[in-house]
């Protein structure tokens, strides 16, 4: 009896695996709301949260292992056929994003459970809702559903951003909300225009419909796609839409900022899905609509962001600018619109997310030991743990600057190789290497001031006790994952290569989602369906 | 055989493709040479050296020494194989897609450098143990030293160019950390940063060169690349590759104009200078030039560029060295000069020049390490390195002086020391080079030798003679150091003599071996010897020695040299200035763009959206025209309403400072929108819009009560004009797009919903069936958004208590003094009715306009009325709001019901949110249209009510205290 029950459960698990990354955090959050957030419930909430995220990581890893076979997992929500109902599609890219999200979330949550979660209401439930939004965005195969999950992840992020309250958080929080509401309005406009001209919002259906759109409709369709580039650009912090990010991330509490490292990647992910695939090279008259924009803007983002790195006066701001700089490199890779470029971008994106998340946490641990100097980049009292924090910071900084043998180097090397032989090669090389060099300068300056330039007269104003192993575990885990990315660079780049190749293979995608290729799913409005036709 | 897989040279030249090479996954001797210091060395030193007690310091030094000697022993064990003409190699795949693989290769050049690194390294470990003060953390020092040693060994043993870059940059980073070892000193920090910037930056440039080189050669494996000289040299990109790679070499080996970092790096502890800045790291660039000489060298371009830069460096640095008052500064410039010396030899297109280069690498490392260590001893004893203050130390520290003088004589090129030998060879090559290049080559070589003699003389004379000491620090007590500190110096000084006297039996075999590798074939026959007879080089040497003596004597006359002040301009200052400007520029750019203004962000976003959306229209052949769809007639009423809509919107934009009025006007906009929905036969939308409007207006009013009633005017008229213009363009653009869309017929998938709503969704109301069934997953997401919004209000205003004024600006009371009786009664009567109506709306939703969302909003409106009528406190007590806890539970319940309804489908083997429906006939009520979607809709209903009430109670709570 037990065995059969377990069998049923396993069967169910296998069948619904694609939706579990969304349902798990959602139901966890619901459960937490029912428990309430009274102080005595906190230990329980922490346990539940950690177990849930760890479980989510396992689900994501399972999906990734499965996706690596090349099979697409298609899940038809409500059992409605695509493209009419909503489908979830897990391919290599989606699975990779899920793993990344959960892998960042777990240490960050662990860190937050060290005390940050007491400084506001319903932190754990909101954290889970945030994950639900992120995961939902990564698994959906429907453009409107992507909008919905953008809303989920955004509204959760609004609340998480002001977690811990304080004047500065409210100030940047207001801006963050206003900018994202405007972006959401643009998203809606863009999606509506795409629906009006392509007649569908299912990504697979779009992939086969968009190349067929011609004439006036194609013009409007392209405009719609570019409006979406603005929307995703805001999320990803693409120049000139990046201005909101540094202050926002610098003001957020450390674990929230660390979690937000993944938020810019939602923008990148969406650009990949929409502009590199749906409007990719095979999209007929609308092909590569973002082509003239993405690469130059990505490179410019990197250059401007590195100026921010050089001019940052506090560590969180510096890290925030590093986030922007990394997005620049990633989007430049995407902007090459080639499988090699995409693969480079994906690998670099994963690495930079881990590093940035670790840096935000480290910045706070460091600030706690610097007394009044706090997180400002100026001489402070001697640190309680100079060697340990110095080593971790060095590791993170070296990777961010792209020094070998860390994954930042490998990622940049991939970008260099991917851009070989194309017209823009000199630009890409010059900018990528310059950004790396300037980042190195900025980080060397910051590091030498923070760790070497001491003001012994301030001794005692920092906490005498160093960060506990418990708190340190989070950045160590994130950086460890980064180092692992280097060690396993071979298999990982094979994975990203395969993911990029899979994205370029529209036919398989369409076949997997729609069942058949070339079927016309749309009909003129107001005409009844021909008789005798069942569900396609 | 030494390594696991060793191959003879013959096999190597067989041009085996890289992937056919035997790859060994297991550890092997070659990898161990690098991994031993990299892993064992660093961690052992870091762990043992944690407590800085004398015993632990000794143990740390022993560990470091042990590791170094072990690496040396491993290399020696493999040496016979290399001497036998084999090239032990090993490797395995790391990142084959990129061509980045772990590959080791031990040829003659690598062996020579490896022995240099480990041999000098062992002496440095010994020396440093005595050099470091008791307060200097030994663990950190030795761990970093081990890291550096591993990096250097990695550079010389790499077979893969990209892996070479890995170790190359690792030497930059570890040298950054070593130079900054005394990080509390500003000069150490600046020196460390400068060294990192120049060498690390050079490494990046070199990386670009390597990637190009690898692409031309089709492989990143040296073994492979070395086979493709013709292809590489003939490639149009060859000059670029050469420039990029040489930039890396020149930065690392401190060639003009990148030399300035080396003197600044003298802020490092002296063992570091002796090791990194004389014997090893600065030789990495030299090594790489030799390593790639078989493929990149031997062209006219290579010869001119490399010889040119080398000549400039050797003369300039030698001249500058004379005038340095800092003992280590003098040695640093001397090092730069000698590196230039070697660079010239590498550049000269003659096989014997390579022999001389290799020989001088060994000689220079020998005497310069000894000199740096002596300088450290002097510094240690006198607490000063200033040549103007030192002097006459021979009497105080005779042994040190003896060894230092020997090494200095070697540096100056006096017979019978090793420096003399390589200098002779250098002169011979320079004379030969005069035929190919210009007479300038030997002339400049001679000039440099004169300066070299002069500064060597100054080093010797100004330190150990020319006494007495002048104005030394009070705690100076010049004396010979303990034997352990002196021993390395003595050993190296003796080596200088031994090599000078018996070159063939000391360095000879190694030189032959390394030159073989650097040339890519056996070097010409040669014989190293002190005496080659009276010839041109000997004459040049004699001139150089005499002129050097004369130059120094002249400069030092009346101690004039001590009065010399360095010029204000230098590469270091220029670099510092450039860096400062860079940082200032970055600061200005950032301040100019990112000023924290929301208006600016929004302006840019809207403008950028307009730009991007306009681009396709700009590029289109013809502007899209309106479609040919049959348009609906616009009734006069509709026109009037829309005119009102336009006017209202304009008034809002113009007078939004008056917040209350703006809010009321926003309500009007919502109302007209709802009416428009009615007019377009969308009753569901109209109902939703209407109830949303009511609830949000109430909530916003409550929020406004906490805020000032007027927005201060912040923008200038010009700016508002600009914004208005942009808004008109953007709004006009959206209107235009809408018009284009509304006038066309579209194909879409909507037929499916109309067709299947009743048959498969079980409802007549297509909108509702879409919401709860076809796209129930979207709704699930959206009610989550709503629930989070409620939580957000709670989190935002938690603990937030504002002093709301009792009355507004016009004296009108904010709250009812006494709740009006009529309202109270009405509220009591209306509540049950409203709840009933909600239930009805909810129930009929699946077939007629309505549904959980609208019902939830209606319930909320009724409860809002309760709040208004009863006042916050009473309503709270009636509803047991308990500071939001109750309502968060409602939200949880609603979301839970919706989610679990969806999961229910799992038990039937169906995906999430699959619905079931039926029409069971009940006895009294008759046929009942039932759908599982109704349960989902119930979740929607509860969530909506919960979220609204939570927001309401939080807003109420935020301001309720003021009544007390």
Automatic annotation (TrEMBL), chain A:
Annotated compartments: Cell membrane; Membrane
Top-level lineage group: Bacteria
GO molecular function list: NADH dehydrogenase (ubiquinone) activity
Transmembrane parts of this sequence: 17-36, 48-65, 85-111, 146-164, 176-198, 218-238, 250-272, 292-311, 318-340, 346-367, 388-407, 427-452, 472-492
Membrane topology (UniProt): Multi-pass membrane protein
Broad class of the protein's primary localization: membrane
Pfam families (UniProt xref): Proton_antipo_M
Residue ranges annotated for the NADH:quinone oxidoreductase/Mrp antiporter transmembrane domain, each copy included: 141-435
Keywords: Cell membrane, Membrane, Transmembrane, Transmembrane helix
GO biological process: ATP synthesis coupled electron transport
Any one GO cellular component localisation term in the record: plasma membrane
Family in the record: Belongs to the CPA3 antiporters (TC 2.A.63) subunit D family.
Protein name listed in UniProt: K+/H+ antiporter subunit D
């Amino acid at each position: 009896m037990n065995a059969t029950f377990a069998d049923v459960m396993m069967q169910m698990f296998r069948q619904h695996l694609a939706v579990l990354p969304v349902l798990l955090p959602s139901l966890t959050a619901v459960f937490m709301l029912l428990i309430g957030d009274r102080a005595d419930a906190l230990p329980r909430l922490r346990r539940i949260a950690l177990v849930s995220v760890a479980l989510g990581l396992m689900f994501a890893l399972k999906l990734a292992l499965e996706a690596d076979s090349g099979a697409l997992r298609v899940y038809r929500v409500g059992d409605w056929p695509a493209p009419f109902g909503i489908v979830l599609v897990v391919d290599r890219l989606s699975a990779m994003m899920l793993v990344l999200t959960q892998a960042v979330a777990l240490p960050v949550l662990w860190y937050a459970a060290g005390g940050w979660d007491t400084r506001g209401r319903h932190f754990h439930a909101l954290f889970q809702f945030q994950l639900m939004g992120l995961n939902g965005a990564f698994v959906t195969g429907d453009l409107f559903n992507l909008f919905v999950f953008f809303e989920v992840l955004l509204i959760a992020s609004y609340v998480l951003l002001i977690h811990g309250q304080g004047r500065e958080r409210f100030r940047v929080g207001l801006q963050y909300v206003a900018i994202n509401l405007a972006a959401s309005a643009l998203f809606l406009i863009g999606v509506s225009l795409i629906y009006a001209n392509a007649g569908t919002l299912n990504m697979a259906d779009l992939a086969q419909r968009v190349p067929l759109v011609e004439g006036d409709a194609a013009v409007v369709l392209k405009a719609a796609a570019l409006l979406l580039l603005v929307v995703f650009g805001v999320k990803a912090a693409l120049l000139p839409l990046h201005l909101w990010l540094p202050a926002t991330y610098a003001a957020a509490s450390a674990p929230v900022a660390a979690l937000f490292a993944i938020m810019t990647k939602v923008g990148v992910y969406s650009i990949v899905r929409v502009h590199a695939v749906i409007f990719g090279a095979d999209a007929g008259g609308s092909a590569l609509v973002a082509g003239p924009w993405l690469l130059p803007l990505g490179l410019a983002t990197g250059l401007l962001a590195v100026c921010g790195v050089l001019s940052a006066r506090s560590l969180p701001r510096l890290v925030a600018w590093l986030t922007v700089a990394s997005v620049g490199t990633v989007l430049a890779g995407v902007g090459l619109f080639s499988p090699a470029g995409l693969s480079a971008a994906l690998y670099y994106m994963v690495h930079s997310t881990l590093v940035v998340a670790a840096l935000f946490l480290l910045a706070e641990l460091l600030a706690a030991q610097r007394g009044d100097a706090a997180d400002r980049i100026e001489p402070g009292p001697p640190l309680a743990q100079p060697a340990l924090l110095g080593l971790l910071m060095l590791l993170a900084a070296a990777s961010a600057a792209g020094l070998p043998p860390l994954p930042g180097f490998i990622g940049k090397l991939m970008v260099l190789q991917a851009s070989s032989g194309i017209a823009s090669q000199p630009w890409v090389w010059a900018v990528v290497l310059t950004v790396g060099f300037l980042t190195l300068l900025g980080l060397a300056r910051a590091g030498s001031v923070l760790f070497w330039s001491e003001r012994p007269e301030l001794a005692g104003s920092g906490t005498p006790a160093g960060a506990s192993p418990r708190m340190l575990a989070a950045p160590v885990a994130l950086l460890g994952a980064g180092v692992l990315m280097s060690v396993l660079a071979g298999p990982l780049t094979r994975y990203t290569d395969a993911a990029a190749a899979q994205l370029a293979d529209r036919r398989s995608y369409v076949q997997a989602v729609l069942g058949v290729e070339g079927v016309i799913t749309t009909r003129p409005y107001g005409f009844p369906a021909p008789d005798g036709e069942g569900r396609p | 055989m030494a390594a696991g897989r060793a191959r003879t040279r013959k096999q190597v030249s067989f041009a085996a493709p890289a992937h056919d090479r035997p790859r060994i996954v297991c550890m092997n001797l070659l990898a161990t040479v690098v991994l031993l210091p990299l892993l064992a060395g660093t961690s052992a030193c870091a762990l043992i050296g944690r407590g800085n007690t004398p015993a632990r310091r000794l143990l740390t030094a022993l560990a470091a020494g042990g590791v170094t000697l072990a690496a040396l022993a491993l290399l020696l064990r493999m040496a016979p194989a290399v001497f036998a003409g084999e090239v032990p190699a090993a490797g395995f795949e790391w990142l084959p897609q990129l061509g980045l693989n772990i590959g080791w290769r031990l040829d003659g050049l690598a062996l020579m450098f490896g022995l240099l690194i480990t041999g000098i390294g062992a002496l440095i470990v010994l020396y440093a143990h005595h050099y470091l003060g008791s307060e200097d953390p030994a663990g950190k020092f030795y761990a970093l030293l081990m890291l550096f040693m591993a990096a250097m060994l990695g550079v010389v043993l790499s077979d893969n160019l990209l892996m070479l870059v890995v170790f190359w940059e690792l030497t930059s980073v570890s040298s950054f950390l070593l130079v900054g070892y005394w990080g509390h000193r500003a000069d150490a920090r600046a020196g460390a940063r400068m060294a990192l910037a120049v060498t690390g930056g050079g490494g990046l440039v070199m990386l670009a060169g390597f990637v190009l080189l690898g692409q031309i050669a089709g492989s990143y494996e040296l073994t492979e690349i070395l086979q493709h000289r013709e292809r590489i040299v003939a490639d149009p990109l060859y000059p670029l590759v050469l420039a990029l790679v040489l930039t890396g070499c020149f930065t690392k080996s401190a060639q003009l104009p990148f030399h300035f970092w080396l003197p600044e790096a003298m802020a490092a502890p002296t063992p570091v200078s002796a090791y990194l800045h004389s014997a090893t790291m600065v030789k990495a660039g030299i090594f790489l030039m030799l390593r790639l000489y078989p493929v990149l060298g031997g062209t006219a371009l290579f010869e001119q560029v490399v010889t040119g830069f080398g000549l400039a460096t050797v003369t300039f640095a030698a001249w500058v060295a004379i005038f340095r008052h800092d003992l280590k500064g003098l040695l640093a410039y001397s090092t730069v000069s000698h590196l230039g010396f070697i660079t010239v030899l590498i550049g000269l297109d003659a096989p014997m020049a390579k022999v001389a280069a290799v020989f001088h690498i060994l000689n220079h490392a020998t005497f310069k390490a000894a000199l740096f260590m002596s300088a450290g001893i002097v510094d240690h004893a006198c607490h000063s390195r200033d040549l103007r203050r030192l002097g006459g130390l021979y009497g105080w520290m005779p042994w040190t002086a003896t060894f230092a003088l020997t090494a200095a004589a070697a540096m100056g090129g006096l017979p019978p020391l090793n420096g003399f030998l390589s200098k002779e060879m250098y002169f011979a090559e320079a004379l030969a080079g005069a035929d190919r290049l210009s007479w300038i080559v030997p002339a400049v070589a001679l000039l440099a030798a004169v300066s070299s003699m002069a500064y060597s003389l100054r080093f010797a004379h100004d330190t150990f003679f020319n006494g007495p000491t002048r104005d030394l620090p009070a705690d100076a007590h010049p004396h010979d150091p303990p034997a352990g500190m002196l021993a390395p110096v003595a050993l190296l000084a003796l080596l200088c003599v031994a090599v000078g006297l018996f070159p063939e039996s000391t360095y000879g075999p190694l030189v032959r071996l390394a030159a073989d590798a650097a040339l890519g074939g056996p070097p010409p026959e040669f014989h190293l010897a002190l005496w080659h007879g009276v010839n041109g080089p000997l004459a040049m040497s004699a001139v150089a020695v005499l002129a050097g003596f004369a130059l120094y004597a002249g400069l030092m006359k009346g101690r004039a040299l001590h009065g010399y002040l360095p010029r204000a301009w230098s590469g270091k200052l220029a670099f510092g200035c450039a860096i400062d400007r860079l940082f200032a520029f970055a600061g200005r750019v950032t301040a100019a763009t990112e000023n924290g203004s929301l208006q600016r962000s929004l302006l840019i976003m809207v403008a950028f959206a307009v730009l991007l959306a306009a681009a396709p229209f700009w590029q289109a052949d013809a502007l899209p025209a309106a479609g040919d769809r049959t348009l609906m007639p616009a009734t006069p009423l509709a026109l009037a309403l829309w005119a009102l809509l336009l006017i209202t919107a304009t008034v809002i934009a113009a007078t939004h400072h008056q917040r209350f009025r703006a809010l009321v006007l926003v309500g009007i906009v919502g109302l007209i929108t709802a009416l428009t929905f009615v007019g377009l036969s969308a009753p569901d939308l109209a109902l939703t819009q209407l109830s949303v409007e009511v609830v949000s207006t109430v909530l916003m009013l409550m929020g406004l009560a906490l805020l000032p009633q007027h927005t201060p005017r912040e923008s200038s008229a010009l700016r508002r004009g600009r914004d208005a213009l942009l808004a008109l363009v953007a709004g006009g653009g959206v209107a235009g797009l809408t018009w284009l869309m509304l006038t066309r017929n579209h194909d879409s998938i909507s037929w499916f919903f109309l067709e299947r709503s009743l048959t498969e969704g079980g409802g007549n109301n297509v909108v509702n069936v879409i919401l709860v069934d076809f796209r129930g997953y979207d709704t699930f997401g959206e009610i989550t958004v709503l629930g989070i919004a409620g939580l957000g209000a709670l989190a935002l205003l938690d603990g937030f208590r504002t002093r709301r004024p009792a009355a507004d600006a016009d004296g009108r009371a904010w709250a009812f003094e006494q709740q009006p009786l009529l309202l109270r009664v009405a509220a009591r009567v209306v509540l049950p009715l409203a709840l009933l109506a909600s239930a009805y709306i909810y129930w009929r939703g699946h077939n007629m306009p309505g549904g959980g969302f609208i019902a939830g909003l209606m319930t909320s409106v009724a409860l809002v009325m309760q709040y208004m009528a009863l006042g916050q406190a009473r309503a709270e007590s009636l509803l047991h709001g308990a500071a939001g806890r109750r309502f968060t539970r409602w939200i949880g319940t609603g979301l839970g019901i919706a989610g679990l309804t969806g999961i229910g489908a799992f038990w039937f083997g169906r995906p999430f949110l699959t619905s079931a429906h039926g029409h069971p006939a009940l006895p009294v009520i008759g046929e009942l249209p039932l759908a599982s979607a109704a349960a989902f809709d119930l979740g929607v209903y509860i969530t909506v009510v919960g979220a609204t009430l939570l927001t309401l109670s939080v807003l109420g709570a935020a301001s309720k205290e003021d009544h007390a």
